[in-house]
Amino acid sequence: MAIEFTVILENRPGTLAHLGQTLGEAGINIDAIHQISRATDSIVQFVPADPAGVEQALSAGKISFTRREVLIVDVMDQPGTLGDVAMVMADAGVNIDSLYLMNSGTVIFGVDDLDGAKQVAAGMAVRVR
């Protein structure tokens, strides 16, 4: 199962570089990442290839984090697919609270009900990984 890490950084130059260098020095490859800045902080969420290595690297770098399992699905690469998948999840009562693109046709959904999302995705024309 894929693991999403969330790190809250100060919104100032160098904090993202420190995170990236910490992970890079530990040999961690990031499969997907997204970030949003607010006035004083920045939220970075990412899915690494080696979750155990990330925990060790972040702890050693004194970078606070949270982690959770996320759902990765392969969807058709055509207009409207994201809306269709999101609507089916919504109709099933699953809230999508994070989303980012890994590569063409692969999407990671951070949801409030992982088991429910898995069941929904399994019933759709998507491949759950």
What does this structure look like?
Strands 1, 2, 3, 4, 5, 6 and 7 form a seven-stranded antiparallel β-sheet that branches. The chain is an alpha+beta fold and 129 residues long. It folds into two domains: 2-68, VC0802-like (2-Layer Sandwich); 70-128, Alpha-Beta Plaits (2-Layer Sandwich), CATH 3.30.70.260. Strand 2 and strand 3 form a beta hairpin. It has four helices and seven strands; from the N terminus they run E-H-E-E-H-E-H-E-E-H-E. The longest helix has 11 residues, at 15-25. The chain starts with a strand and ends with a strand. The model has no long low-confidence stretch (mean pLDDT 89).
Keywords summarizing the entry:
129 residues, 32% helix, VC0802-like, Alpha-Beta Plaits, 4 helices, alpha+beta
SSE blueprint:
Layout: E1 2-10, H1 15-25, E2 30-37, E3 41-48, H2 51-60, E4 66-74, H3 81-91, E5 96-103, E6 106-111, H4 114-122, E7 127-128
Antiparallel strand pairs: 1-3, 1-4, 2-3, 4-6, 4-7, 5-6
Query: CATH class of the largest domain, please?
Result: Alpha Beta
Q: What does the radius of gyration come to?
A: 16 Å
**SSE order in H/E notation?**
EHEEHEHEEHE
Structural domain tally? 2
> What is the CATH topology assignment of the largest domain?
VC0802-like
Helix content: 25-40%
Total helical elements: 4
The general outline is elongated
Which percent band covers the strand fraction?
Answer: 35-45%
Uncertain runs: none
- Count of β-strands: 7
Structural class of the helix and strand makeup? Answer: alpha+beta
Largest sheet: 7 strands, antiparallel
Going by CATH, the architecture of the largest domain would be 2-Layer Sandwich
Q: Ends: how far apart?
A: 7 Å
- What is the averaged pLDDT score? 89
What is the CATH homologous superfamily assignment of the largest domain? VC0802-like
